Structure prediction request, 203 residues.
Amino acid sequence: MTATQQQDPQLQKRLQQDSIQLGGRTIYLNPFLYWRRFDSNTDRWLREPGQLTEDQITANRRRFYPELDWSQLDDHQMAVHDGAVEMFLKSLDLIGTFHPELGSGQMLEVERKMTITKKRAFERWVDKALRRRSREVTREQRRFERSRVWRAWREWIVLDTTHKSLMVMVMLMVLSAVGGWTVGARQSACPTLSLPSGQTGIR
Prediction:
């Protein structure tokens, strides 16, 4: 342990929560601490919820949340907790891959400590991931809608009937402008005479 870790009790506590000592070896419980050993496919598999089947997640709900009444959860809470179950399964899979020497009893110890220390962290991670995905879907839907409207507008512009309609509109606008200019010119050419007050008969 470095002097920095000894002087920072918060960092030391975090490291203790993110690891477990088994057989003289430090096993990390936080799956992202293995990121240097990930390839791009593994990184995407870990970070994106929905990579495991619904049957896998449903079968393991009670394993990691024995205290939870799943029927009382709303849709978002259900998605968050299912995502957390997925994170538990992925993390245990990665730990087993990177530490093949661990026996079943040791893996059970890893799972127990992970369930205690990483549950809230996994839930927060999944919640952020789901909200980020929702924003991306909304942006994509808006982009698609703008593209659809623009495409429909372009298709309408190139139609022969559109060209004819536009020509009629342009001609009407031109005639209206010419008519307005003509009326205005006539009015300015024939100003109203203003007689002196003495000639109007009004005293």
Remarks:
- The mean pLDDT is 82.
- Residues 20 and 27 are 5 Å apart (CA to CA).
- Strands lie at 19-22, 25-28.
